[in-house]
Input
Amino acid sequence: MFIELIATVFAGIACAGVAMLLNIVTGRRLPKWVMPVAAGLGMIAMTIYNEYTWFDRTSDQLPQGIAVATTVQEQSWFRPWTQLLPYTKRFVAVDTGTARTHENLPDQRLADLYFFGRWSPVNQAPMLFDCAGARSALLIDGAEFAADGTIVNADWQPMAENDPILKLVCGT
Output
């Protein structure tokens, strides 16, 4: 975040410098308001660029075995350009490289989900998937494993069979 702030300030300074150079080249015929307007437009352009490239920069840095499952696009009335081209504000990644199964329950898989959001910390949660039953259970509140591998006190939630997270974890 701090680096993006510095980049935005330098973009404003660079655009003001270009405006100042144009003013010198034109024999100082440009109005006085051109430099601050150029600086402001440069900073706005840099902010928009950072918003639109955040997802690509973040997802490209994911380690091997972690794959993006879903993305959330955002549109906003106070950012009118997003009405034409929404940007990715959040996404969910699944750690398929360390997904685990139990020999007694081959249709169930345990995988870690990572929730990424623009301007928010990354959250991680273990989730159990029942590939045959198309359901899932977050393992954060009171769920326990029995000796045979079954889960007790799980809050199973149904999932659509074509859910991208379920498809990624179950390999279907």
